[in-house]
Amino acid sequence: MAEEPHMRTPRVVLGVCGGIAAYKAVEVCRRLVDEGVHVIPVLTDDALRFVGELTFNALASEPVQRSLWDEDTPIPHTRLGQSADLIVVAPATAHTIARYAAGLSDDLLMATLLATRAPVILCPAMHTEMWEQASVQENLATLQRRGVEIVPPESGHLAGGDSGVGRLADPAVIVARALAALAGIVSSDLAGVRVVVSAGGTREPLDPVRFITNRSSGKQGHALAAAAARRGADVTLVTASPIRLAPDLGASVHRIDVETAADMERALGEACRGADVVIMAAAVADFRPKVSAESKLSKEDGLPELVLEPTPDILAGLVAQRSKGQVLVGFAAETHDVINRARRKLDRKGVDLLVVNDVSAPGAGFDHDTNAVAILHAGGGTTMVPLTSKDAVANAVLDSVIAHQKENRSPT
Ligand code: CTP
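A: This is the predicted complex of the input protein with cytidine-5'-triphosphate.
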């Protein structure tokens, strides 16, 4: 199927220079690919002293490019520079910053930087003394004046046991800046769609200092909210997790922090009215103390008697009050007979899609940055998403939501 113009896959040249932070560029590459970006890595000779070409070849959208003089691809710099939507250089060394400021095209990366009209983001990384050099700062100021965006380094541990300013910015920050620069090119297939996501494990108080909760971190729910916002949706995130969202999402995600299942039920009841898509990624506690003591329980008062009661089934309430065309997505965590149990749960819950985690699988589920899921469709199909980042899982869930909407709009 031909891509709609606004859904064209954006192309990013990822320039990697010779600094110890080159290993973090691997993470930048992987995250950009997970976000649906076509990444072409261009490594300098010195970058290859720090990180293997094979690593990028395995993760990027195209093999590594490193030479101006490759007979199979004549004038590679003009092809790369002209076709790029964005060039990100991470890490950018003092040497590369100086060459760029001076307009020296002495290798493929520099020639590509000079042969492009695309926006450029430089992410410097170097020792504090080098970072503070007047020459480095003046070169950066020159480049900034010319429209180059700088993602400044952070303060922290540096190579050789030193510590100070100069550490490459967090890959998540670099990717967020890159996606912001690509806004309008990155798929905006959820533009105008109102999406509500719940996240995190609720806390059910026993007294003012103690509570019952579960092992959910909220990372998958937050990744869903972020991915939906980046795809143009108008997102409300009802979360029981303290984790922060990337700063660039501040405006496009309306965040409501809650603590208990009862709080979450109230907030979702409001937020879901008129929503097009509701994704229940929260791990709502199934039970709560029947009574929460007003003051702290003390050992002096003897062993407290713990009487539990069920929490409201929020998803069941949302299914009962769903508006026409609203897509409801449930989550489930299973440890055995995963697909069969999930299929029964999907039928029982009456949702359109059920995302099931095998929480016993290595690297999947609670508190990991990676996940492996199966997405079960009420119509009968199953999409398997093998172990990958939670961002990539989020995009796969959103793809299934869009596929479901399309199927239900045009019955065959
Ligand atoms: N859920 C909910 N309210 C609850 C419990 C769960 O809305 N009180 C939602 C979760 O957010 C999730 C889905 O229901 O989207 C499935 O939760 P799960 O706990 O796996 O389902 P249960 O029906 O409680 O099944 P089980 O007996 O396997 O725990």
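Residues 261, 280, 282, 284, 286, 311, 313-315, 330-333 surround cytidine-5'-triphosphate (CB under 6 Å). The longest strand covers residues 327-334.
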